Amino acid sequence: xRFSLVVPAYNEAGYLPRLLExxxxxxxxxxxxxxxxxxxxxxxxxxxxxxxxxxxxxxRVVRVEKRAIAAARNGGAAAATGEVLCFVDADSRLHPxxxxxxxxxxxxxxxxxxxxxxxxxxxxxxxxxxALMIPFVWLTGMDTxxxxxxxxxxxxxxxxxxxxxxxxxxxxxLRLRRLGRSRGQRLTRMRxxxxxASVRKFDEHGDWHYLTLMPRVAAxxxxxxDTGRAFAERYWYRPNR
Length: 241
Fold this sequence. Notes:
Helices cover about 45% and strands about 15% of the residues. It is α/β, with parallel strands linked by helices.
């Protein structure tokens, strides 16, 4: 197996079908053949039909009871058989050329990378937020979308840190970058096959909410760790779905 695509999912029965439709298109377009891409849905203690939707579409389903996205990612990875592990959010959509392009860029001098994203819609508030985040992406070389690495390297760094309720993806890429530097490798930001990112948090909280809310969250996290945890529980772990 070349690729294992891990999808962490909590109550995603509504969004999962459109992601899996895009995954099937990408599997069908992969020059190595669709049989070289397995899809694992890590059901993070859902109370809706997430698992049933995934099984109906031929996905392997792994139940992960610990309510932490890092635990869901690790649970899916533990069941994976592919040489390359890929991680994507359940409310995203893949570009049809995703797996071909990952194959193209995952060369010996690259330890890991991400496809990057484009939003499913634009607004002034979202455009400003996006513009403020881009310099961080350029400076660090880290991006989002479909995050990918070799299974051996995932094991070498111990996977995702399950003590983190959020920013676990940033921590994950930082540790992979450190591993890569020790071997003369780098992170890569893929071009030409960006993942479509959901903006449902902006729909729910307002298009400007990152600019007003996130600085206070960061300050609270630095001064009182439980403040950041309480926010994470409300924002990511008890959503309106």
